[in-house]
Amino acid sequence: MRNRKFSDAPVVLGPCAVPNESAGAQIPLYLSRISAGFPSPADDYIETALDLNEYLVANPAATFMVRVSGDSMLGAGICDGDVLIVDRSCEAVHGRIVVAVLDGELTVKRLLHKDGAFVLQPENSAYSEIRVAEEQEFCVWGVVRGVVRRML
Question: What is the pLDDT of residues 59-74, one digit of tens each?
Answer without folding.
Answer: 999 999 999 999 999 9
